[in-house]
Amino acid sequence: MLNDMVVVTGMKVAGTLLWLIYTVLLARLLPPDDYGLVMYAITVLSIAGPLTCFGLNSAMLRHGSVYWHQDRPHALKALLAEARRVIVMAALIGVLVVVVVFQVALGIGDGIGWPTVAIVAIGMPLYGAMDLHRETLRALDRVIAGFLGFNILRSLIPGAVAAALAVVGWLSVDTALAGFVGGLVVIATLDARRIASIMDARRSASAVDRSDRSDWYRIARPMVLAEALVYWTARGDILIVGAMIDLKAAAIYLTAQRLAVLVTFVVDAVRLTLEPMIARRFADRDQAGMQDLLARGSLASLVSGLPIGFAIIAGGWLLLGLYGPEFQQGWAVLAILTAGQMSTVLAGPVSAVLRMTGLERPLTAILIAGAVGQSVAVPVGILAGGLEGAAAAAALVTVASNFAYLAIVRRRLGLRSGPGSGMFEPALIRSTLDAVTERARTLLAGTGR
């Protein structure tokens, strides 16, 4: 577990640094409104793209992990093929949704051109494939490979393209977005080849029966709604700000939001590491094993997240200044959003349990409440207090959702996450420190050779 956490955290740190460089580069090279439009379009793409998986990305992580553990690569391959077909079909419908979103929010032909909409539509299935392939590689126990595309190449490729376009004077909203989508093409191709080579190395005579397919969609049907709500709750406030205020305000808000989520660095790494482990322990009915994972994950989340949160609040003005002086007016927004993310740190990796243990329906109910709350609260917050009011509304939704997750997991499974998980047990702390010390010694020994 520790090794995977270190790797995932490292990949997320590297990915965030590359994303920071990419967005700072665009903010410095493009006018604020054009930068805001690029980020607005990428936000739409990041919401719509994963939804083309129709929830089968979640089914892949849960059932794919079990199939690989049970030496059933044929079943995993069948699930992957089914998900890819669904992505293509869903993307055809998704084009209409994207057109409606841009028309309602910005006005096509007025605030945004048709080429921009077309680029986003082309990128939708590619973004969905990237998300599916990431979950597939995680199910195959290929942690580094799973995060290479999403965390590294997703920013590295369009950043290099944007820099090259700026040198020759061709950088614009549409060429910047085309560079981003071009990166998705490269990622999809590389991940598909990597998955094929891994699965071809393990052959099995097992077949896929009707019950397997029923299991996939039993998870996928509620999870497609759950994922739509997750993405709306995570990024919908940006779209609301852009529609109700302007694209420059949306750019400032988005920048503050992306910096605020740095607080959950280790929490996300822990969650991503634990999900396949929890799926397997749940399948084995190992209650004690799941609780131990939650306790260790909660400890790692707390001791890392709180210092990061305080550092971001203290140094946020300087971080925002990297994007330009006009972005520093978003410091209060950054502080409010960071405070909301601290509740995620305190809750620990509780969300890892909800997706992996058959709690899709109560999870969806919480997400519906959160999405509705945000859709109402953020506009009210904007009317009452501008950007700061929007941030306060979004932060309150985050806090309430985390409390609800903790309550559901405790009531339905008898599991605890966060401070009540047993994370402060002396034996657990000692074993965790021993594991960290041993890992550090191994790394130092390897460096010294």
Tags for this model:
mainly alpha; 449 residues; 15 helices
Structure description:
The protein is mainly α and 449 residues long. Helices cover 84% and strands 0% of the residues. The protein contains 15 helices and no strands. Helix 2 (32-51) crosses helix 4 (73-105), helix 3 packs antiparallel against helix 4 and helix 5 (114-139) packs parallel to helix 7. The protein is globular. The relative contact order is 0.11. The mean pLDDT is 84.
Topology:
Elements (H helix, E strand, L loop, with lengths): L1 H28 L2 H20 L4 H14 L3 H33 L8 H26 L3 H25 L5 H28 L9 H35 L2 H14 L4 H19 L3 H35 L9 H17 L3 H6 L3 H54 L12 H23 L1
Helix pairs in contact: 1-6, 1-10, 2-4, 2-5, 2-7, 2-8, 2-9, 3-4, 3-5, 3-8, 3-10, 4-5, 4-8, 5-6, 5-7, 6-7, 8-9, 8-14, 9-11, 9-12, 10-11, 11-12, 12-14
